[in-house]
UniProtKB/TrEMBL annotation:
Family: Belongs to the CCDC90 family.
Biological process according to GO: calcium import into the mitochondrion; positive regulation of mitochondrial calcium ion concentration
Regions crossing the membrane: 174-193
Record flagged with keyword ATP-binding: no
The organism's taxonomic lineage, starting at the top: Eukaryota, Metazoa, Chordata, Craniata, Vertebrata
Species annotation: Mystacornis crossleyi
Protein name stated in the entry: MCUR1 regulator
Pfam families recorded: CCDC90-like
Locations listed in the record: Mitochondrion membrane
GO cellular component entries: mitochondrial inner membrane
Key word Coiled coil present: yes
Keywords recorded for this protein, A-Z: Coiled coil, Membrane, Mitochondrion, Transmembrane, Transmembrane helix
Length: 194
């Protein structure tokens, strides 16, 4: 074991400052023992380069295994989420098409009903004043029918809007779930790297 100071020079220095030779040698001997003990304690906590490289190789192989597992997990999870999102998009497009078809059908029916009622009213007006009273009665029925038709249209449109909003909310929930899943996986990766 190497000492990084000259023990003889220290003995001489102590003797020059009033210590006897025996006292100086005892002090230097005590210092050497203290330093040896401290160095031994330090060496116990140290690792050799070979041990450090072995530990590093073990950690790197473990990280490599975790990377492979995460890549496999990522591919399977993301592909499942993508397929689920595609299914939801297709369902939404079908529902939207059905809603638009229903709206178009209701509008066409209403236009047809209105045109029929208008033609009836015109025929009744052409017959004269007597028929005018009858036409007023028909107008009242027509107004009731139109009001009922308008109410039906409004309720159907409101139902369709409600259905669309609920599907939008479901899509947002699935999207939020996908984002939180991705964030969870990313945080897991981040945590493993640190």
């Amino acid at each position: 074991r190497r000492l990084y100071f000259d023990t003889h020079a220290l003995v001489c220095l102590l003797e020059a400052n009033g210590f006897t030779t025996q006292q100086s040698e005892v002090i230097v001997s005590a210092l050497v023992k203290i330093m040896s003990t401290n160095v031994d304690m330090i060496y116990k906590d140290m690792v050799t380069k070979v041990q450090q490289e072995i530990a590093l190789q073990q950690v790197m192989s473990h990280i490599g295994g975790v990377k492979k597992d995460m890549i496999i997990l990522e591919k399977s999870e993301f592909s499942a989420l993508r397929s689920e999102n595609e299914k939801i998009k297709l369902e939404l497009q079908q529902i939207k098409k059905q809603v638009m078809d229903e709206i178009t059908k209701v509008r066409a029916d209403n236009k047809l009903n209105l045109n029929l009622e208008k033609s009836r009213v015109k025929e009744l007006v052409s017959f004269g004043y007597f028929l005018l009273e009858t036409s007023q009665h028909c107008h009242a029925q027509q107004d009731r029918a139109l009001t009922q038709t308008d109410r039906k249209i409004d309720t159907e449109v409101a139902d369709l809007k409600t259905m669309l909003e609920s599907h939008k909310l479901d899509n947002i929930k699935y999207l939020a779930g996908s984002v939180f899943t991705c964030l969870t996986v990313a945080l897991g990766f981040y945590r493993l790297w640190i």
